[in-house]
């Protein structure tokens, strides 16, 4: 179990510091693993490499910021990417939309939710629980 | 022909606390959060890698199919751990168990070898229980 504690601590460290410049080599050192062993064990434990995991966390935070109307440029730097074009390329590859298109789509969706919330909720739930009569 | 499951519901005692549990502890993502009145939301979440199934964190309050008595009884049943919701899968149960435990999730069964894989059990913040299982490869 001690080995798992160390690998989980390394993951939790990434969870807490993913917005900063993270040196994954340093994390493996701190967790007392060789780089190779760290990569192997991390992938076995969490299904992806530390680098892939870090990128996903950053993209997930980027989606949250874009939803909250933060500009693409600001989002890019806030989540730890260093170049806007490479952030945009990566985002589009993962999301199928550029950050700008994604923000516009979310904005449209939020407007629709405000205008007609019950078109987003399965009718059986809304009528059974009486929400659409309130 | 039924092709897939899209929504499943869990009754929760407090949606705000449930949100914290499912999103910040289990690591799920929010899919929908729409106000439905009475300070309640149509609130759905899903595991990060399984976005096609929405788990509805359903508030228990009177109205519709619940009168006061039913709402109160249901709350008691949930609180007392009557309902088992389902099985969550993971790739490495020991790492997942350790991580969730570190985040304060209460386990009622430590990872244990079973004929279908390795299983642990935990409760959510309302009292609903779940299996956390790493299935044997041949069963996946």
Question: What's the short version?
Answer:
Chain A is mainly α. Chain A is 71% helix and 0% strand.
Keywords:
heterodimer, A: 134 residues, mainly alpha, 8 helices, 0% strand, flat, B: 140 residues, alpha/beta, 2,3-Dihydroxybiphenyl 1,2-Dioxygenase, domain 1, 3 helices, 41% strand, globular
Question: What is the fold's blueprint, element by element?
Answer:
The complex is a heterodimer of chains A (134) and B (140).
Chain A: H1 2-17, H2 24-30, H3 35-46, H4 50-67, H5 72-78, H6 84-95, H7 99-115, H8 123-128
Chain B: E1 7-12, H1 15-25, E2 29-37, E3 40-46, E4 54-59, H2 68-79, E5 84-89, H3 93-102, E6 106-114, E7 117-123, E8 129-135
What does this structure look like?
The complex is a heterodimer of chains A (134) and B (140). Chain A has 134 residues and is mainly α. Helix content of chain A is 71%, strand content 0%. The mean pLDDT of chain A is 89. Chain A contains eight helices and no strands. Chain A starts with a helix and ends in a 6-residue tail after the last helix. Chain B is α/β, with parallel strands linked by helices and 140 residues long. Chain B has a single domain, classed as 2,3-Dihydroxybiphenyl 1,2-Dioxygenase, domain 1 (Roll). Chain B contains three helices and eight strands, in the order E-H-E-E-E-H-E-H-E-E-E. Chain B has helices at residues 15-25, 68-79, 93-102; strands spanning 7-12, 29-37, 40-46, 54-59, 84-89, 106-114, 117-123, 129-135. In chain B, the strands form two sheets. Chain B has a four-stranded mixed beta sheet with strand order 1-4-3-2, covered by helices on one side. In chain B, strand 3 and strand 4 form a beta hairpin. The A-B interface holds A 1, 4-5, 7-8, 11-12, 44-47, 56, 60, 113, 117, 120-122, 125-131, 134 and B 7, 9, 29, 32, 34-38, 42, 48-49, 56, 63-66, 91-92, 94-99, 102.
């Amino acid at each position: 179990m001690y080995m798992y504690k160390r690998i989980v601590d390394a993951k939790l460290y990434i969870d807490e510091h993913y917005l900063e410049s993270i040196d994954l080599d340093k994390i493996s050192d701190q967790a007392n693993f060789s780089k190779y062993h760290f990569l192997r064990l991390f992938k076995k434990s969490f299904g992806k490499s530390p680098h892939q995991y870090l990128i996903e966390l950053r993209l997930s935070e980027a989606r949250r910021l874009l939803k909250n109307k933060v500009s693409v440029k600001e989002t890019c730097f806030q989540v730890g990417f260093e170049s806007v074009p490479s952030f945009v390329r990566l985002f589009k590859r993962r999301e199928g939309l550029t950050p700008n298109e994604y923000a516009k789509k979310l904005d449209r969706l939020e407007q629709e939710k405000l205008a007609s919330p019950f078109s987003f909720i399965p009718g059986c739930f809304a009528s059974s629980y009486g929400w659409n009569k309130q | 022909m039924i092709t897939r499951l899209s929504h499943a519901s869990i009754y929760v005692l407090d949606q705000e606390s449930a949100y914290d549990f499912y999103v910040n502890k289990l690591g799920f993502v929010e899919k929908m959060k729409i106000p439905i009145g009475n300070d309640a939301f149509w609130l759905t979440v899903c595991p990060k890698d399984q976005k096609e199934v929405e788990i509805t964190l359903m508030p228990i309050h009177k109205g519709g199919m619940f009168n006061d008595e039913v709402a109160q009884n249901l709350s008691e049943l949930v609180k007392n751990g009557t309902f088992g919701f389902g099985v969550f899968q993971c790739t490495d149960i020991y790492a997942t168990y350790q991580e969730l435990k570190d985040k304060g999730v209460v386990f009622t069964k430590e990872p244990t070898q079973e004929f279908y894989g390795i299983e642990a059990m935990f409760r959510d913040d309302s009292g609903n229980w779940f299996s956390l299982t790493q299935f044997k490869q041949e069963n996946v």
